Amino acid sequence: MSFSGNAKSSVSALPPEHDCCARAQLRAMLSFSSSFGENGVKFITETPEVSDIFTSLLLICTDVAATPEISEARTSSTYKTEITKKEELEKLFALFEGKENIYKVNKHLFGCKKCAVSYIRGAFLAGGFVNSPDHSYHLEISSPHADLAVDTAVLLSERIGMPKISARKSSQIIYYRESAMVEDFLTLIGATRSAMDIMSEQIKRELRNQANRQSNFEVANLGKTIDAAAAQISAINDLKAKGKFEEMTPQMQRLADLRTEHDDVSQKELGEMMQPPISKSQVSKILAKIMKFYELYK
User: Fold this and answer.
1) What percent of the chain has pLDDT over 70?
2) Tell me: the pLDDT tens digits for 99-114?
3) What's the Cα-to-Cα distance from 127 to each of 3, 35, 142, 245, 255, rounded to whole Å?
4) What pTM was estimated for this model as a whole?
5) Which of 54-58, 70-74, 208-212, 276-280 is the most confident on average?
6) Cβ neighbours of 164 (radius 10 Å)
7) Averaged pLDDT, 14-43
8) Strand order in the sheet with 128-130
9) Backbone angles phi, psi at 164, to 5 degrees
10) Is 271 exposed, middle or buried (0-12, 13-18, 19+ CB in 10 A)?
11) CA–CA gap between residue 262 and residue 271 (Å, rounded)
12) What is the DSSP letter of 247?
């Protein structure tokens, strides 16, 4: 099962806390279903647990019994539930206080503080999708109804943060692309395992990025060290060729010889080779003096 399917499966196992929450979740699943109107309801999902919770809520909240039609394919199955009887549709419209309200959130129908979460959960189960964090951070809920999309975006903004809305063909897409927002959404609706998977992937990416930055920093420093050593060796050899090498102090001459003999070692290692040993900062100062001395004669 896909990452999105696993998230929906785990959320479907969470029963609504109160009867009003069950009705809120069912309203969302109906509003975000494949189609819902005077001609009937068509609810389609590839997740069997989502199909089960939908038919269960129908029976519990409206006393409408429905059996999904299962279409099996090579890699997945589709569960389609259809309701076309007028008397059953009237029961569903009554959930919204009339069919003119079926594409609205209808917050005034929420009976408790948990209803909003149940509604968001139902919207995700019916019209949502979350991408695997292995690829990118993306969670969306789609609907062909602009008013419903705006109402839902406002509801989400009150609990997570304002999502973005864009048009895709004939649908309105409510979406989050920030990992923190996706995590918060999944945690809110109860998909905690999926939220933890996203957090884990984010940590892995940060560690990889940190390691890459450290590696790039070390490579850059190594390049600078090599360039500096090459310039120093060239200067020392030029001083010897011009007969100016012996005019430097004995300490400068000894360090200059060590530098030409060991062109690939660090300043700290050069200092340890000196007799007596000297610190890295002392090596740096002496090499700077050598380069300054070279400037006088180049």
Assistant:
1) 96
2) 999 999 999 999 999 9
3) 15, 11, 5, 80, 73
4) 0.69
5) 54-58
6) 13
7) 94
8) 128-130, 139-143, 171-176, 164-168
9) -95, 155
10) buried
11) 12
12) G
Assess whether pLDDT exceeds 80 at residue 27: yes
- Packing angle between helix 146-157 and helix 115-127, nearest 10 degrees? 130
Coil, helix or strand at residue 83: strand
The region, left, alpha or beta by phi > 0 then psi within -120 to 50, assigned to residue 193 is: alpha
Residues in CB range of 19: below 8 A, 6 or more apart: 61, 111
- Band (pLDDT 50/70/90 cuts) for residue 12 is very high
Residue carrying the six token digits 């609205």: 104
- Pure H helices in the chain: 3-12, 19-31, 48-62, 86-95, 115-127, 146-157, 179-189, 192-241, 250-261, 267-273, 280-295
Q: Are 195 and 130 in contact (CB under 8 A)?
A: no
Q: How far apart are CA 66 and CA 31, in angstroms?
A: 17
CA distance 123 to 89: 20
Length of the chain (residues): 298
Backbone torsions φ then ψ of 158, nearest 5 degrees: -80, -15
Question: Quick one: tokens of 280?
Answer: 């890295």
